[in-house]
Design a protein that fits this description.
Strands 3-2-4-1-5-6-7-8 form an eight-stranded mixed sheet, sandwiched between helices. It has two domains: about 1-85, Up-down Bundle (Four Helix Bundle (Hemerythrin (Met), subunit A)), CATH 1.20.120.140; about 95-285, 3-Layer(aba) Sandwich (Rossmann fold), CATH 3.40.50.300. Helix content is about 55%, strand content about 15%. By secondary structure, it is of the alpha/beta class.
Amino acid sequence: MVRFFDRLKAGLAKTRQAITGRLEELLGQPVDDAFFEELEILLVQADLGAGTARTVVERLRSQARGKEKEGLRVALEAILVDLLGQPAPLVIEPPPAVILALGVNGVGKTTTVAKLAHHLRGQGKKVLLAAADTFRAAAIDQLEIWAKRVGCEIIRHKEGGDPAAVVFDAAQAAKARHMDVLLVDTAGRLHTKTNLMEELKKIDRVLAREMSGAPVERLLILDATTGQNALRQAKVFTDAVGVTGLALAKLDGTAKGGVVVAIANELKLPVKFVGTGETLDDLQEFDPRAFARALVGPE
């Protein structure tokens, strides 16, 4: 747990730098209207968004009477934990389970798929990758390179093929080879989002038919560095394909890590993973309490 927290804290370093100094000053000031106004501005700057920042401040205001500096900090952490929700591990039992990796191009989706495969392999799972982003040859080739590095088998077709056909073949292979998890990398060309969403729905139908009864996670991968734009993307995918959980990539590259709180609060979707670095090990199961402490806790 200590190692996990230290890595998470390091991954949130840019966000902490944007918050911590000013928060320390604020917590040493009188708890008056000016205090709450400054705190709300600080939270918006960390990309919690205006609505979520206001919610946090209103809750803290109701609890602040008689609290000293550390009492205020503890109350603030607890409010963030509550907005982030309960830990929500992947549902991958009984096997074979399916994880659909969703998200627009450029968010780090294929790399996150590789990290997730590595994570599952570390748990002793047999993982089959499906290269269903047939729109880009580079995505197929990249996933194949990752598959070899992680030690997974992969099902792929040629560029321009039908993604649903790839998923059909992958489903058959997952059953025949007694795989624990089928992990599907999908396309993300949101500029033609109508076609993309229809494509994803077709993949869903194939999985429902070919892997009837299997648990299916629809994991939306978002780029934390895009801040509130990540929230807008989440709304689009959630409306279209019923997202079951989120993975926030590139958390180490942003001063706006507070967007995790905004997304969890506004969409009521569980954050399941956060990416905090470049290596295969830098994908961590999300712990709301550790995240809140890493965000606003003492040095």
